[in-house]
Amino acid sequence: MGRKGLLIGGLILLVLGQGRAWAECSITGVTSVNFGSYLPLSSQPDDSTGSISIFCNRRTSVLITLGVSANSGGFNPRRMANPARGDFLNYNLYRDVSRTQIWGNGTQGTYVVNATVRKDETLTFTIYGRVPGGQDAGVGSFSDGLVITLMY
C-alpha cells in the first residue's frame, strides 16, 4: 500500500508540473489623437483618430480601458488644457466610429474594449476623438493625459 501511495503522488506532481504557460501581452504602440487646428467660430465638431496596438504571445482575451482626463478628472467631458493661457477645450474619446460610446473603464456610462488576441498576433484598435464645435478658446497648444490599461 505504501508503494501505490507514492506512485500516485508522483503522478499527480507530474501532471501538475505540466501546467499551461500564462499569456503575456503588451502595448506595443500608441498613436496620439491629434486634432490639429481648432476653429472656435465653427459649430462643427473637430474629429480625429489615434490607435493602440497590443501583442500577445498566446491566444487570450484582453480588456482595454482608457482613464479619466488629467485636466477634468472625469470622462465626460475630458478636457485639454493650454496652461499658458488657462484655457480649456472639452473633447472625448470613443470606441466607435459614430462617436456615441465613450471609451473609459466601464463606469459612469463609459465602455471598454474587449477582444480575443490570437497567438503571436498584434491587434490595433482605433481611438475615435471629437472636440465639439463652438468652444471659445484662445490660440495656443492644448493637451491632456490619461492612462491606458491592458488587462488579460
Quickly describe the structure.
The protein has 152 residues and is mainly beta. 11% of the residues lie in helices and 38% in strands.
Write the layout of secondary structure elements.
Elements: H1 2-17, E1 25-31, E2 46-56, E3 60-66, E4 78-82, E5 87-94, E6 113-117, E7 121-131, E8 148-151
Antiparallel strand pairs: 1-2, 2-7, 3-6, 3-8, 4-5, 5-7
Largest sheet composition? 5 strands, antiparallel
Structural class: mainly beta
The helicity comes to 10-25%
Fourth-tier CATH superfamily name: Fimbrial-type adhesion domain
Key phrases:
152 residues; mainly beta; Immunoglobulin-like; five-stranded antiparallel β-sheet; three-stranded antiparallel β-sheet
Task: Describe the model.
This protein has 152 residues and is mainly beta. 11% of the residues lie in helices and 38% in strands. The chain has 1 helix and 8 strands; from the N terminus they run H-E-E-E-E-E-E-E-E. The protein has a 5-stranded antiparallel sheet, with no helix packed on it. A 3-stranded antiparallel sheet has the order 6-3-8, with no helix packed on it. Strand 4 and strand 5 form a beta hairpin. The protein starts with a helix and ends with a strand.
